[in-house]
Amino acid sequence: MATPAAADATATPPPPLPDEAQQKIEEPGKEEAAKIEESPAPSPAPAPAAPAPASESGNGEAAAEAAKEGEAPEEAAVPGPVDDSLPSFKEESYFEKDLKESEKKALHELSDKVEAAIKAKEFVLPPKVEVVKETTEIAKVDEAVIVATTIEKDVKEGDLEVKIQEAAVAVIAPEEAAPELPLSEAPKEEEATTTPAASSEAAAAPEPTSEEVKAPEAIPKVEETPKLEETPKVEEAPKAEETPVVKEEVEGGAPEAKAEEPKIEEAPPAAPIDEAPKDGVIVAPPLVTETTQVEEDTAPPEDLELWGVPLLPSKGDPRTQVIFLKFLRARDFKVKDAFAMLKNCVLWRKRYGADKILEEDLGTEFEASAFNHGVDKEGHPVQYNDFGAFQDKDFYQKVFGDAAKTEKALRWRVQLLEKQIQSLNFNPGGVTSMLQVVDMKNAPLLGKKGVRLFMSQALKLLTDNYPELVVKIVLLNTPWYFSTIYAFISPFFTQRTKSKFTFGGSSLFKFISPDNIPVQYGGLSRANDTEFGGDASASVTELVLKAGEKKTASIEVSGAGDTVVWEFALVGSDVTYGAEFVPSKEGGYTTIVVKPKKITSLEEPIRNTFKSPEPGNLVLSVDNTLSRKKKTALYRYIIKPPPAAV
Questions:
Q1: Which domain, by its residues, includes 373?
Q2: How many angstroms separate the Cα of 370 from the Cα of each of 144, 215, 296, 365, 386?
């Protein structure tokens, strides 16, 4: 059931059919766009109104042109052709000459402030003092020993103080239990310990048979004797101090089931030293140990770095001002706020161990939710985030099973981000930020407490300590309830960060070349590709088909025995694809390589191989004559000559 916020964002409940639901996601219309603006949705500044989930192949003008040509709008939620008319998202300049006068002044002020603060050791962590007090109390109840341990930790670091208390109780059984009495000797033990009154009654009772004595699970003999059950003296015998063995025989049966054992669990707490111990309890004086550890930040202040960039301006590293400008832009060039953010970031990294996190082995169990892959058209490294992974119950338990697992997952995400930062170049004019792709397909609702907590912790950590490291955030497959998710995450972002959001399935191809997009997102990039990996000659070619149009692409094969390897990807659905080989020699026979077949949709690109018997042309055909929607096909190829004769 949709939440009220989600209902307002969608106006109507989600349609039941998948195609219609997808259309609803990608084609919210004017009403949906207006409501996303009111929520408020991110809007590129100073660009047009807030972006809404994409419904057109490129933009409004493309849709209008398609309408004039009698075409239906292109399918939604799929990557579309490159649209160069969209605003560029190139990074802002980090050269001082390109800054405004007010921005230059703020940069100089921050540089002076950081220089003075580093020399004054303001970026050094205060000494960390940890006092551990361990108290052990021991009590002995009959033959059992109870050990209660309390550990109190008092950690102080400057004005910060954390107190932790842990307690544990252990019950230690006697090392040697009372020896088991052989059943064959039981009558002798009974005769030696039974009171005179009981002996006279027992003499009149019939003697137990040998089978009763040898039975391992037999009920104690005294209870089996009818006369003994009626004799109150036998029942009172266990209470007498002088007859402990009869007490064991009547009440306990087997030696390990003594009547006194429950008293070990219910033993009273150890009495303080200044009080007299209770009956049956022996209390030892408590043992108290106290240790103190002092940890100091001994790193030389002048060697302070952030992501491998020196922070001391007097060192003259041009990358230093790039770092300063990132913090200034994150705080609207307010020097005081930017300095506080930078200082807090440096101190957090020292406490969290962020500079050494790449050395940690955090496993691979979280890779289903995020990974780094390739670069965009501007050279920014790309990180993919799959929110749908949290729908898997096993994966959900790996992340949110307990507090320790969640902390490990969060640390893993920080490590993944730090790995991506290693590929950045913080020189002015270099690539100083990355592109984030967020796949919202099957993303869980925020009703799950674990998801909400993890998202809030991750977003706060990233926004506080990684300013201006993301150039654009591309949202794919946004669900109908995205407005609810956005309402939750938007308070963590500044307006500047919100302007970096872009929506729509087609937006991925606007920023990233197909050969750099993973196959699961409609691209042509495969992990550990032995055919096309690293082959710069295998460029990607686009075939744009209008409604009712058919196109072909020809690949020339010059030699007999050459092998052609090609890939075909479709942006959209419902086209007919085929391939045939046409010999160059007149009168040659055309060979059907791929029988024409209708493609409804492609999860991954099609890869084919053909060994040419003679020179000719491999012809790929894409038929869109039965559709009223524009389509885009992508293909690339390589030609391998025959192996040299040995």
A1: 4-68+353-512
A2: 54, 66, 36, 11, 6
Nearest to 580 by CA among 555, 607, 550: 555
Whole-angstrom distance, CA of residue 233 vs CA of residue 241: 14
d(CA 219, CA 205): 17
Boundary-marking domain end, from 309, 336, 352: 352
Count how many domains the chain has. 5
Whether residue 33 has pLDDT greater than 50: no
Same domain, 453 and 497: yes
What whole-number distance in Å separates Cα of residue 365 and Cα of residue 140?
47
| Of 192, 188, 199, 271, nearest in space to 228 by CA | 199
**241 occurs within a structural domain:** yes
pLDDT at 15 over 50: no
Residue 241 CA to residue 532 CA, distance in Å, equals: 92
The tens digit of pLDDT for each residue in 474-522 reads: 988 888 777 777 787 788 888 888 888 887 665 588 889 888 888 888 8
- What are the b/e assignments for 176-185, b being 16+ CB within 10 Å? eeeeeeeeee
Asked whether 631 and 572 are in contact (CB, 8 A), the reply is: yes
* Residue 488 half-sphere exposure toward CB, CA atoms < 13 A: 19
User: How many other C-beta atoms can be found within 10 angstroms of the C-beta atom of residue 644?
Assistant: 5
| CA dist., res. 453 & res. 252, Å (int) | 53
